[in-house]
UniProtKB/TrEMBL annotation:
<keyword id="KW-0547">Nucleotide-binding</keyword>
<feature type="domain" description="Mvd1 C-terminal">
    <location>
        <begin position="205"/>
        <end position="405"/>
    </location>
</feature>
<dbReference type="InterPro" id="IPR014721">
    <property type="entry name" value="Ribsml_uS5_D2-typ_fold_subgr"/>
</dbReference>
<comment type="function">
    <text>Performs the first committed step in the biosynthesis of isoprene-containing compounds such as sterols and terpenoids.</text>
</comment>
<dbReference type="GO" id="GO:0019287">
    <property type="term" value="P:isopentenyl diphosphate biosynthetic process, mevalonate pathway"/>
</dbReference>
<dbReference type="InterPro" id="IPR005935">
    <property type="entry name" value="Mev_decarb"/>
</dbReference>
<comment type="similarity">
    <text>Belongs to the diphosphomevalonate decarboxylase family.</text>
</comment>
<keyword id="KW-0753">Steroid metabolism</keyword>
<dbReference type="InterPro" id="IPR029765">
    <property type="entry name" value="Mev_diP_decarb"/>
</dbReference>
<keyword id="KW-0756">Sterol biosynthesis</keyword>
<protein>
    <recommendedName>
        <fullName>Diphosphomevalonate decarboxylase</fullName>
        <ecNumber>4.1.1.33</ecNumber>
    </recommendedName>
</protein>
<dbReference type="GO" id="GO:0016126">
    <property type="term" value="P:sterol biosynthetic process"/>
</dbReference>
<dbReference type="Pfam" id="PF18376">
    <property type="entry name" value="MDD_C"/>
</dbReference>
<keyword id="KW-0444">Lipid biosynthesis</keyword>
<dbReference type="GO" id="GO:0004163">
    <property type="term" value="F:diphosphomevalonate decarboxylase activity"/>
</dbReference>
<keyword id="KW-1207">Sterol metabolism</keyword>
<dbReference type="GO" id="GO:0005829">
    <property type="term" value="C:cytosol"/>
</dbReference>
């Protein structure tokens, strides 16, 4: 009868959140459980077209526990980080009504109702690209929409922070600062947008996914060990980062690429130096990462002014930022010259994302990669070696927008009738 019908509804929302790359790094916590950092950090949000998480959050009286699926596989929600995010969002839930479906959820009902969450990354998890940032941002954002949470984006970022620190910066597009804050409860440790993605839209970002079989120390473990053992980390957070934050904000505001590049490279290098200063030392970059740095430094040196900025997180992959399309195509030519693909690779799977950069670089087929001349900074001294296969693939992208909701039910990852994965 009608009683059954009114109990079988499923209500859901689907949202998309971007990843971000820090140009002034977060490394070290002053509070482990609230995830409060020892310094401010600044990031660039990456275009969700190329790198993002999509999440569907659903509620139904038929669900008997909270459940989550990541890339189609059920995962546990028992960790403190998931529990914090769920608790914080639930406690801010409001009344929700869907007249069409005859659904009326009262504020207090949310404590008893269970949720299903399905998440999907549009980039390979195996690539070792930080997926926790987009993942926790999307979890918090989609649940907040489902539960009609009325907090502003900054407050949501402070909740996402409790899932993974870097996730708080994924609640905004463009250029974002995570303000460390100073309250013990963490309420003022949140993200603020410095500029939208349209403010500096000439920038082009190329990610080099470095081939590696090594299992790295997780960021969480690595930074805990650095906080305990690295004197350099404490000097960095107190003396170096505060000044760099001011300078980086200025570089972004005035679109000063030379300043932006110098700060980005210096900060990445200092972060990796604090890892070396940790006992026992942590190595995130490998020989390929180091080679990329040398080639980029040589190019910048030769031109006399920065053509490219590089930055590396807790792994060997390089994120390279060029000031415009012209510089990006010169950058891609260099990368493909030094790191050509193995002979059986398709161009279309070796350079992914925004393919127009490949076209700009004059590369239409693999034979064009093989025919690339040595970069001018080599001054006719052909290198003794090319490192074929040392980079798995490249992703061409740009600064991008923040979270968005999808109205289209086709994009949902859960079945609209059952609330289980499609
Ligand atoms: C090197 O945010 O992954 O990418 O807060 O413990 O989850 P937890 O760590 P996480 O650390 C990111 C570290 C970094 C630098 C950065 O993104 O700022």
């Amino acid at each position: 009868g009608s009683d059954e019908a009114t109990k079988n509804w499923v209500l859901m929302v689907t949202a998309q959140c971007p990843t971000n790359i820090a140009v002034i790094k977060y490394w070290g916590k002053r509070d482990e459980s609230l995830i409060l950092p020892i310094n401010d950090s600044i990031s660039v949000t990456l275009d969700p077209q190329h790198l993002c998480t999509t999440t569907t959050a659903a509620v139904s009286p038929t669900f008997d526990t909270d459940k989550m699926w990541l890339n189609g596989k059920e995962i546990s929600l028992s960790s403190g980080r998931f529990q914090s995010c769920l608790r914080e969002i639930r406690s801010r839930a409001n009344d929700v009504e869907d007249q069409e479906k005859g659904i009326c959820i009262k504020k207090q009902d949310w404590e008893k109702l269970h949720v299903h969450i399905a998440s999907f990354n549009n980039f390979p998890t195996a690539a070792g690209l930080a997926s926790s940032a987009a993942g926790f941002a999307c979890l918090v954002y989609s649940l907040s929409k489902l539960m009609n949470v009325k907090e502003e984006q900054g407050k949501l970022s402070a909740i996402a922070r409790q899932g993974s620190g870097s996730a708080c910066r994924s609640l905004f597009g463009g250029f974002v600062k995570w303000v460390m804050g100073n309250e013990a409860n963490g309420n003022d440790s949140l993200a603020v947008q410095l500029a939208s993605e349209t403010h500096w839209d000439d920038l082009v970002i190329i990610i080099a996914v470095v081939s590696s079989h090594q299992k790295e120390t997780s960021s969480t473990t690595g930074m805990r060990e650095s906080v305990v053992t690295s004197p350099l980390l404490h000097y960095r957070s107190k003396e170096v980062v505060p000044k760099r934050i001011v300078e980086m904000e200025k570089a972004i505001k005035t679109r000063d690429f030379a300043l932006f590049a110098r700060l980005t490279c210096a900060d990445s290098n200092q972060f990796h130096a604090t890892c070396l200063d940790t006992s026992p030392p942590i190595f995130y970059m490998n020989d390929t990462s180091h080679r990329i740095i040398s080639y980029m430094e040589k190019w910048n040196q030769f031109e006399g002014t920065p053509q490219v900025a590089y930055t590396f997180d807790a792994g060997p992959n390089a994120v390279l930022i060029a000031p415009n399309r012209k510089a990006a195509s010169l950058l891609l030519q260099r990368l493909l010259f030094y790191f050509p693909p193995p002979s059986d690779t398709e161009l279309s799977s070796f350079v992914i994302g925004d393919k127009t950069i490949v076209k700009d670089a004059g590369i239409a087929a693999m034979k064009d990669v093989e025919a690339l001349p040595p970069p001018s900074e080599l001054k006719g001294n052909a290198p003794s070696q090319r490192f074929r296969g040392d980079i798995s693939y490249f992703i061409c992208t740009r600064p991008g927008k923040g979270p968005v909701m999808f109205d289209d039910e086709d994009r949902a990852l859960l079945h609209p009738k059952t609330g289980f994965p499609k």
